[in-house]
Amino acid sequence: MTITPEGTAGGSVVSWLMTGENTGLGKIFAKVMPVGRLVGGDFEKGLTAMKAAAEGG
Fold this sequence. Notes:
The protein has helices spanning 24-32, 35-54; strands at residues 2-6, 11-15. By secondary structure, it is of the alpha+beta class.
């Protein structure tokens, strides 16, 4: 995860990059099961925690 300052109002741009290699059964599974469905809940929890941290909560 990369956080880069943006603008003069104290904003930021957050980039999240996931990399890896899909081979064998993992490659087949990735074509059948959407990634959003696999990590969506964790992604939402992370965004909520990041927002709380950014707002001083």
